[in-house]
């Protein structure tokens, strides 16, 4: 039988909490993209969520350093905390490009990629909720496959969007701006996939 | 004396197999660059090899998770599998830029960098073949130095190519496209060097 | 009581030495930015310091592989050596952009970012000097916070600089060049923050 002490349980709780912060940030990104008229204000709110993520990461690392026996590899707990923080940072960075580069009109593909980031972050919540049942859960593997599928689909969307960008007749300076925005959106989906892959490794090791 | 059980031997076999997949991909890149008229079709074939690499990486990780005693640090086996996968992914990404950015003419420098990637991947095969003899092999160190040399030379080639690009009178949009292509080619050589450095560490630890 | 054998002490010495090399490189970058007329020659000198850093990293890894008991986690020693090397490499890469992209006039913001890199590298020296007293040092935490503060401030400076760049009327080709230079300067400050975060983890674990 597999049983957890309250202390070990703490990590699973923290991971669910971080996943919820990432999901909140991803929803704010979705809204951000639809409301570029208020991008500066909306970015400030997103920055607050980013700081919330920083504090949660710090909490996990502190817990890690005072816990002698961890529910799975220390190193993996450390990597999950770091990778979750990367997702949230990248969401903020993607949004900040619109302010920095003074982009006031969104594209269809950016909206699609934003929705995919939110979809991926939602799956990550379930991953984290199921993690404590990793020995028996039937959902984990499905969710991991789904996050990988979203990333591959996102790759296709952004490659097509970038291709269209270079084929279009818009000004070069706009091409550069959008090239950068798509890169950040794609990197965010990659970071979601990284989490899925780390969790896959943890599940395999503890099977 | 140093002796391996069949199970441990498996990892060395897998690494040689992944190195062969990377080398195959690098040769396809070399051909790809010489046949941009058929870039879409050629890219599809390269994507298949990328998936072959994915499956091999998965096989290594599964083997890792069911093997209790590994021939060297688990973490290093994990990193080698991941870094080999990165090389193959980057080769595909480099090729995909030509399709995505609608680039139909190659440059001399891209050809040179493609050849260097293939040369580096060839050295990696020998690295992997010699890895099981790491305590006695005289080749390993030479090969590691050679891969590092290729990366440094590649850095010079791509810096010069990018410099020429910005000094030329070609359209800005073309400068952007080629800046991106050179970056991917350079990143691929960096990924080859990463593998050489990880192997160097493994050899040092087990000397 | 906490006491170190001469061998263990060696790592702390090496880290101080690498930090001094990084600080030297950062000061050369500061000078480099003020003397772009001699950028090719100055870059050569910076490359020599980069090689000095490579040799020091190699020395640390060799020491690591012949030391059975390390003063703290082997993995962290490895990461610190690697991250310090990244800082020095990025400083050289940032400078090399000016030569590669044929940029002969500096901006106010590049100067500011250069100064911030030097300030951050100076703090890293103190971090490394205090590391051997990690159980009692009162400075470590302050220095870590300061390096994080510099990185956040640098992020604001570079985001503003890039924003201004895209809003200005300079030629697009110049926008591309400067976008790339600012990226390297920002990445260097990020690499300094990475070191601070790794040290923070080491201190927490050994508290």
UniProtKB/TrEMBL annotation, chains A, B, C:
SUPFAM superfamilies: PhoU-like. Coiled coil: none annotated. Belongs to the UPF0111 family. This is Phosphate transport regulator. It comes from Clostridium scatologenes. The lineage of its organism: Bacteria, Bacillati, Bacillota, Clostridia, Eubacteriales.
């Amino acid at each position: 039988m597999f049983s957890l002490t309250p202390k070990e349980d703490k990590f699973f709780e923290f991971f669910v909490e971080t996943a919820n912060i990432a999901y909140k940030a991803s929803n704010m990104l979705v809204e951000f993209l639809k409301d570029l008229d208020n991008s500066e204000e909306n970015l400030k709110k997103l920055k607050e969520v980013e700081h919330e993520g920083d504090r949660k990461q710090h909490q996990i690392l502190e817990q890690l350093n005072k816990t002698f026996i961890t529910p799975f590899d220390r190193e993996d707990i450390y990597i999950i905390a770091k990778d979750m923080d990367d997702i949230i940072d990248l969401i903020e960075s993607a949004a900040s490009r619109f302010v920095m580069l003074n982009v006031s009109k969104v594209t269809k593909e950016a909206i699609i990629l934003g929705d995919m980031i939110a979809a991926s972050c939602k799956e990550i919540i379930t991953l984290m909720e199921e993690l404590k049942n990793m020995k028996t859960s039937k959902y984990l593997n499905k969710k991991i496959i789904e996050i990988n599928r979203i990333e591959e689909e996102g790759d296709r969307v952004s490659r097509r969007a970038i291709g269209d960008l270079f084929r279009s007749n818009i000004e070069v300076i706009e091409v550069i701006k959008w090239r950068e925005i798509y890169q950040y959106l794609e990197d965010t989906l990659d970071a979601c996939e990284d989490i899925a892959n780390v969790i896959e490794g943890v599940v395999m090791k503890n099977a």
